[in-house]
Amino acid sequence: xxxxxxxxxxxxxxxxxxxxxxxxxxxxxxxxxxxxxxxxxxxxxxxxxxxxxxxxxxxxxxxxxxxxxxxxxxxxxxxxxxxxxxxxxxxxxxxxxxxxxxxxxxxxxxxxxxxxxxxxxxxxxxxxxxxxxxxxxxxxxxxxxxxxxxxxxxxxxxxxxxxxxxxxxxxxxxxxxxxxxxxxxxxxxxxxxxxxxxxxxxxxxxxxxxxxxxxxxxxxxxxxxxxxxxxxxxxxxxxxxxxxxxxxxxxxxxxxxxxxxxxxxxxxxxxxxxxxxxxxxxxxxxxxxxxxxxxxxxxxxxxxxxxxxxxxxxxxxxxxxxxxxxxxxxxxxxxxxxxxxxxxxxxxxxxxxxxxxxxxxxxxxxxxxxxxxxxxxxxxxxxxxxxxxxxxxxxxxxxxxxxxxxxxxx
Length: 410
Hints:
Elements: E1 7-9, E2 17-19, H1 28-38, E3 47-54, E4 61-67, E5 70-71, H2 73-76, E6 83-92, H3 100-110, H4 134-141, H5 144-153, E7 175-180, E8 185-192, H6 195-215, E9 228-229, H7 233-267, E10 278-282, E11 284-291, E12 294-301, E13 303-305, E14 311-314, E15 322-327, E16 336-338, H8 347-353, H9 356-362, H10 385-391, E17 396-409
Parallel strand pairs: 2-3
Antiparallel strand pairs: 1-2, 3-4, 4-12, 5-9, 6-8, 6-10, 7-8, 7-17, 11-12, 13-16, 14-15, 15-17
Helix pairs in contact: 3-7, 5-7, 6-7
Cofactor: Mn(2+)
Binding site for Mn(2+) 1: 79, 174
Subunit structure: Monomer.
């Protein structure tokens, strides 16, 4: 008899929640949020909770939500298509410069990052391009035609920071890293999504879903569970717009990786190949998939697709290990795994509890920011990545273990 590695949260009047959380903390508020979602009538079979699960805005981060006939825009969220990209190079640790600050500086110059702080200009922010390079133009050409179609339906999206955000990092927990694997090879890794235009798309359709609920007088356990029903105009428009935002996010990471490779080549004279092994995966998105013999919509809110043999990325924190993994195709998790370590406390709590000195000690050996502006990303604000990996052994196997030596935060 198969020994299951998940626990089941029973939900009165709803579907069960299968939780891969043994050995990791789960806050009661996150369980209540999961239970609320599980009560929705269109949930298919069950919800899957990953070991990095924690309370989120709109939906529980670290959850996999399969639905039939409806979609919850707030479950996808506003960072549509957020995800990871990593590429192994032929460089090794001994090829890195003694002064890693040179690498960090080159990366910060090559990839716009952060938000407006002090310097402001009309229609933009410090995290966008003043003059986008040709790599952005080439990528935007693949996105523009469909974006024009979407803007014809929702004109206000045209006034978002779209083209100038393509190939940029953002802020918060988005990052660019130089890492070393267990064999000493250098990896380039980054984390970002659909930036301002994805935020605008998500916010617009979250509000439309709430309006629909008011019009039809639908009672919800939480307003963030407002949904769009299949067959309606809003549903069709959202499916098109969210799909485009996910394309934008994937392209955003691809352009950043191109510019990251160029930045590294500008510091390291030795010729090298990149993309020896490469992964580009979403962890905030929705798509149609077939599970248990039926086509359903699967929303992964802070979760990664882990079909049998599929490669994925599970990052730790600024001072912890990250993993390149191979999926085992576990049907009970809807072929999913965690998207990271998962927070154990809010950003405001981390800032209250820790100091810059704590941040310096926690990121020893990593060339990165060590100031008050990144205390909310201190490693202690996250779950133990080793415990998270232990809890999902039946979801993925580890292919490479990475440790960062350079980290750029927005």
